[in-house]
Amino acid sequence: MPSADRSSWDTVPRLTPLDFERPNMARLTDALLGGRDHYASDRAVMDQLLRVAPGARQLARDHRDWIIRVLRLLVGERKIDQFVDLGSGMPTVDNTHQVVQRYNPEARVIYVDNDPVVQAHGRAILEENDRTHVAGCDFTELEKALEHPDLRPHLDLTRPVALMMCSVVHHIHDHAHAAEVVQAWMKVVPSGSYLMLSHQYDPADQSEASALVRTLEKMFAGTPISTTPRTREQIQAFFQGLEYVPPGLTHPHDWWPSGPRLLPLSALNFAMLGAVARKP
């Protein structure tokens, strides 16, 4: 793979409609997971990130493992057969549809992402899967998303749905707006549906994790991958009115780990929280 372009994204010319020349969160995650669908600008940001937070690559893997464990629970034990992956990002190893359709081949999965690169890659992979769809729209605009031809016809809102908001809500900087987006989606799905949400977390306790997450917030402010970390209380508010699946809101690596911990944890592991909750 060619070496990363170290120039700042603020000075890189935007040469194509797909905006390959600027970093993108979906492609950055792909790079951290060891994928192949990313570009020089994404690798440059990854290099910057890893210099400040060497544990970023491990956190990406731990977060992906958490997603897989939750999906197994929802499709296997809770018998959910409709999954809407909001802000789904770049297809990677063990995508949502691969995990749930391994346990239930009839399960339906809809990926929602407004990034045209993500859409192109997703549709290429899913050409022959008639129970999985890619809706190219912004999940923060609920009414438009629900009317999208690749979403609404494939979603039965009379039956329970699993809504996935994995590492996306912290990209909505205004807290009131973020809460409105989460609540609006939960309002349209029926009783028995689930919310699966993970979020960048600031312990706000003078710890190494708190200092690191604030450093990263400042480092990437004003870029396409900027985030707004939130406190535990703020993240808990997204689950208002819902019933947590045990163990509730916790670090992804602590949510029903599948075995003993083999790799060391870094401060960044303690700068993310995730939970799954049921709509009564």
Report on this model:
- Helix content is 35%, strand content 12%.
- The chain has a seven-stranded mixed β-sheet, with helices on both faces.
- Strand 1 (82-86), helix 4 (96-103) and strand 2 form a beta-alpha-beta unit.
- Helix 1 packs across helix 2 (40-52).
- By secondary structure, the protein is an alpha/beta fold.
In short:
By secondary structure, this protein is of the alpha/beta class. The protein contains nine helices and seven strands, in the order αααβαβαβαβαβααββ. The longest helix has 22 residues.
Order of helices and strands: HHHEHEHEHEHEHHEE
Rounded to an integer in angstroms, the radius of gyration calculated over CA atoms is 18 Å
Spatial sequence of strands, sheet with the most strands:
3-2-1-4-5-7-6
Let me know the number of strands. Answer: 7
User: Helical element count?
Assistant: 9
User: Biggest β-sheet, characterized?
Assistant: 7 strands, mixed
Overall pLDDT score: 85
**Which regions are unreliable across 5 or more consecutive residues at pLDDT < 50?**
1-19
Structural class: alpha/beta
Q: Percent of residues in beta strands?
A: 5-15%
Q: N-to-C terminal Cα separation, in Å?
A: 49 Å
Give the overall shape: globular
State the helical fraction.
25-40%
